[in-house]
Amino acid sequence: MNEHAIIIFQKNPQPGKVKTRLGEVIGGEKAAEVYEYLLNYTHDLVKNYPADVFVYFQEEVDKSFLLNEHYHLSLQGNGGLSDKMKQAFAEVLGKGYQKVLIIGSDCMELNTDILDEAFEALNYQDLVVGPAQDGSFYLLGMGTLYDELFEEKSWKDLSDVEDIYADAKQLKLNLHKLKTLSDVEVYEDLKSLKGLLNIH
Description:
The protein is an alpha/beta fold. It is built from 6 helices and 7 strands.
């Protein structure tokens, strides 16, 4: 059995339901295109990576994402984002995986070297965190479920990473910090994607 697992949370790319902050500037249709592009980038990155991939959908399971025998598809649990993440970590760690990462699907700068570093760090650290430029995170990894990290968190504002650092310190967990990357959340984040997707 593979010791490594990657969790991806994703929505079905419907206009008006994804990348809403971006949609306010470029329109819902284009924002959904951006979301789909980023989603495909993320899956291209992980589908041949030596880890099992667990995709959790928000509304309905899209079987077209069953990309190979390492893929497992299911629905997200109940509650807020932190509750859903905790349930996903509990489920995947409960299957016997030694190291589990959850990654965002909106980070064009994420690459296999960073995934390698994250899994490697879990050999000697309790937690690994990939901070995003806006104060959120693009990656969170652990080999043991630390419930306290997920309690009373909305993870809707931009202090996500600071919350995790503070909790890790309080719980006396060793934490490995990956390099800071940019997520694509607002118009200013689009950069090179504008030309690719014909966005003005």
